[in-house]
Structure formats: structure tokens, C-alpha cells
Amino acid sequence: MRASYPLPAVVLGASVILRVPYRLAEVALGVLTAGLGIYTRGV
Fold first, then answer.
1. Model-level pTM greater than 0.70?
2. Other C-beta atoms within 10 Å of 28: how many?
């Protein structure tokens, strides 16, 4: 299913991530990147 209005989600995501402590955001990004890498290797 395709998002009809992606801009509000981008703005909301940006405002949320700017409120998260830097280190926590960095770790979350690393986990997300590793998870995507593992997922794509299995597909």
C-alpha cells in the first residue's frame, strides 16, 4: 500500500528524532541498518 501523503510523516519523524538524545538515535539507526541488512540477505 502506498502512502498518499508522505510529507506529514517525514515532518513528524524529523521532529521526533530531533528530540531523542544523540546517542540513542545513533544506536537506533545502527540497529535499523543491521536489521535491514540481515533481512535483505535472507530474501
1. no
2. 12
